[in-house]
Write a structure and sequence with these properties.
single chain, Arc Repressor Mutant, subunit A, mainly alpha, elongated, 3-stranded antiparallel β-sheet, 9 helices
Length: 225
Amino acid sequence: MVKRIRFDIENHQTLRERIVDTIREAIINGILKPGTKISEPELAERFGISRTPIREALRQLESEGFITVIPRKGAVVSKLSRKDVEEFYELKSILEGYAARKAVEKITDEDISHMENVNRQLEKLTQKGDLRKAYELHNEFHDAFVRICGNEKLYRIIQNLVRQFQRFRMILSVPGKIEGSIEQHWQIIDAFKKRDPDLVEKLVRENALYGQNLLLQEFEKEQEG
């Protein structure tokens, strides 16, 4: 029999967040593949709790786009469509482009040096073939100027958007693909040095579209295969 544990509101909230984090990481890391069923009984057994916080966690994951709840079937890991990719990168292009434009007003030489350092590390990791860590640095580069723009609500929106697509964007870290993005990063850095908001926004949006085109190409290859 599963041991039942009583939780106060604070602990209950913490538990739900722990369940969300566990499932989210499993999806992002590819442990749970698209279409995989998420079993409420198994999760309740694993965490030693009732199904109520499990259902709450699944509702949050559904709102974040990680899972889909299908009537009479339950929760499954969400699949990705061509339309999903196009919509994601359209939003990323617009939001990050705007954030970059606003960041021009506030960015310091120290901030630019940090972005240069991140991109150098990204180059080194790519050369070593450590693509998972390289991908994390790729996110850190973009995170830098989004933070600098100073709009906390915009920052959270972009963070949530990118997190939803993280498992699919890992494909951009395969050899021969991330190098193009690194070169675009250097162009973005130069535009920040010039304090040119129009150029910065243009380059950031082009960088997003570069990612979109690569991912759509991979979809076409899978369909042909």
